[in-house]
Write the structure tokens for this entry.
Amino acid sequence: MSSLAGDWLMMERQTFERFVRHELPDGDPVLADLEARHLAITDPGRSTLAPLLSQYRTRKSYLLQGPALHIFVVSLRCHHTCNYCQVSRQPTGHTAFDMAGNAARHAVDRLFEWPGQDLTIEFQGGEPLLNFNAVRSITEQIVARNATERRTLRFVLASTLHDLTADQLAFFKEHRFKLSTSLDGPEWLHNANRPRPERDSYRRTLEGIERGRAALGEDAVSALTTLTRRSLEAPEAIIDEYRRLGFHSISLRPLSPYGFARKTRDRNGYDMAAFLRFYATALEHLLAVNRNGYRLEETYASLLLSQLLGPFAHGYVDLRSPTGAGFGAVIYDYDGQVYPSDEARMLAAMGESRFSLGRVDQPVSQWLKAPAMYQLMDAGVAEALPTCSDCAYVPLCGADPIDHFARQGDTLGHRPTSDFCRRQMGLFDLLLERYENADRQDRKTLHDWAFRTGVNQEDALDAAA
Ligand code: SF4
């Protein structure tokens, strides 16, 4: 059972049924527990909703800030030909797919029209280093404007980190960039998943990680892995590779239904049940690694545990209600189009542009009136969606109308057959059960993941190279 603010209690079904039938006697410890967690009121005269409402406000506090994540797609060009690529990458010579100066200038103007005090600016591609001039110019324009705006800025580069130059690293250091890259596991797996003509993607990625760490500090570089069917056979090997390389966080990300990933689904794809089996094995291995004294967490588990065990809002846009698309994130594409999420941009690249907000030379107020925003508002409140409205996890879960449109052709979606829901429910069930049955040491590990310090969840989760 859960309250609207996310307090929860597990109980035997029999006890639950007695509670619903008002058969639990006064003084019953379960009833006291239910009252303490705002799941029941036994005496309206002595009770108040104030603590529940204040908790609710805290959990949804991201709504008061406007979008915090602003993604600048500076080029679609890329060296790689990954089968699972989520974007419509372009060959390295095709500079027509770079963001032009005008689009960049307008995007910077729009950035400061949003009300948020804390702004994360993430550069993405393709490979953003192939248009480093745009990264430099946009960063400098933002920093210059911020002399009067006085927002708190955070810069992130989502890149393969191949061919990083000393000049680029000095620039990233000056502006305290965080680097996020893709590392799919050991060499055989990484090179198979992320081919380059020279078959040297793994070696170049490791070089980039080392150079980034040397210039910016150990914690400034994070990595995530995209799981292909091949990856599902190697949970231990993937985790051991991250440990060997000194990472303290790993992000185990299932394939998405966009871009090239859709075209190669038969070869690379798998169902959510296979992902959840993989994830359960990976979780056990991660707990064993932590038991042996090495701190290594899975970032999505940390996010869900922070929601289960703590009262706070999170910054992760894919897991919000109302949806984070447009309300938590904005994407400025290379050609001047603006989208409420990266997934909306990918759909547009596949010919479906219904989620476009407009162009960078239009004011933000006009984007907010775009039909796309109305579609997102209609289908973006999980508490009002069929099935979610009755689900105990809804205060901790999110609505993802664009993902449901991409997978099911409908922004509302059908939860019993939704991969989004299967993943969420499967992971909540797994983590909750593991937490409840854990010995002291494992419980402490899971607790530390939820309330950790040192690694930024958003760095690892938001950015994908
Ligand atoms: S998506 Fe699934 S797990 Fe999440 S609230 Fe809705 S029904 Fe529950």
Summary: Residues 453-465 have pLDDT under 50 and may be disordered.
